[in-house]
Amino acid sequence: MGVANVVVVMAAVVGLAFMPAGNRPHTMAKDIAMVETTPAPPAVTPVGLPPGVVSTPEFARQVHANEAGLVPVLMYHRILAKPVASIDRTPAQLRRELETLADQGYVPITAREFAIGDIRVPAGRFPVVLTFDDGHPSQFALDASGNPVPGTAVAVIQEVAARHPDFRPVATFWITREPFGLVDAESQKTAVRWLVDHGYEVANHTWSHPDLRAIKRKRVREQIVRLERLLKHLGVPSSRTLALPYGSLPRNKKDARVGSWDGTRYDFAGVFLAGAEPSLSPYAKKFDRGAIQRIQSNGKKGECREWCSQHWLEWLHKHPGERYVSDGDPDRISIPGKLRGNIVAKRGLQVIAY
């Protein structure tokens, strides 16, 4: 697992080295002045959630429920017509991958929903988490009519969802200090509010995208808090998730998940790495919410022959007993009896072993 993550991190570092200067992570600058007493924004109702069912051992067996199984958390960066770095994907490649997911029965959930174990997927279907790092303009932009610009990641997600009604149009966007390349506060607010209002998660990728392992503890916390303050200023619900720049944990691992700086505290439900295999179920005993695995979106070539999305989606398709299969009941965890010792009942959920 550790080797895989290092491989993907190195690929990301190489890819960033070839980014045009205007698209590279920014250096630290004075953050926006904000009032700490600003009231928190209201909670957002999740979009496209299925009606609930009540699972029983017979029903769980019928749908082959396995909520101790593996979940693909897919990692995307720029979506470009002409890729520059190895981690870039084209709109056509993104569309094909999402169509494959929809055809195979996957249903998107947000990183937040996954990390807290609030997985509301129809019975017999499989959760997938779509994540986008860096807040690049190719991921999201609005046209003059207030709709997603064609070819951006959000536009592609919306198009695929329109063709596949069970494919929830949701994803997680981890942003830095200039979300989607927008500089002025009003444009930033308009963009992130559109995403949040449509069920997308917008969350923390640090203020200026440093390697957290290479900086001091105080700077780690400062980087995280500055971005939290920006999100609050933009009217986004408090972050429950953090994506590590380059997938690099700070030397004190705990600082990535819980800490404070300048009077502001953070406490994430999940901290996400850069790769490179499916994640354990959030109900699994060995699930580490401080280091959640992701899979880079890419074809089977080079190092990606074993570590990227095409390989893993094919592997999960060939090994259906290994992946997470929902029972359709968010209040119960349904698993084959032989896996009972592999999970813990979190959030007070009832366990059904069949």
Walk me through what this model shows.
- Residues 6-45 have low confidence and may be disordered.
- The protein is of the alpha/beta class and 354 residues long.
- It is built from nine helices and twelve strands.
- The protein has a single domain (2-11, 70-326), classed as Alpha-Beta Barrel (TIM Barrel).
- The strands form four sheets. Strands 1, 2, 3, 4, 5 and 10 form a six-stranded parallel sheet that branches.
- Helix 3 runs parallel beside helix 5.
- The radius of gyration is 19 Å and the shape is globular.
Secondary-structure blueprint:
Layout: H1 2-17, H2 57-62, E1 73-76, H3 91-104, E2 106-109, H4 111-115, E3 126-134, H5 153-163, E4 172-175, H6 185-197, E5 201-204, H7 217-233, E6 241-243, E7 258-261, E8 264-267, E9 270-272, E10 295-296, H8 304-307, H9 309-318, E11 332-335, E12 350-353
Parallel strand pairs: 1-3, 1-10, 2-3, 3-4, 4-5, 6-9, 11-12
Antiparallel strand pairs: 7-8
Question: What's the number of domains?
Answer: 1
Percent helix = 25-40%
The biggest beta sheet, please?
A: 6 strands, parallel
Share of residues in strands: 5-15%
- The CATH superfamily is identified as Glycoside hydrolase/deacetylase
General form: globular
| Low-pLDDT segments, ≥5 res | 6-45
* Spatial extent as radius of gyration: 19 Å
Tally of helical runs: 9
Q: Find the count of extended strands (DSSP E, 2+ residues).
A: 12
Give the terminus-to-terminus CA distance.
Answer: 30 Å
Kindly provide the name of the CATH class.
Answer: Alpha Beta
The CATH architecture term is Alpha-Beta Barrel
Under CATH, the topology can be stated as TIM Barrel
Element order, helices and strands? Answer: HHEHEHEHEHEHEEEEEHHEE
What is the SS-derived class? alpha/beta
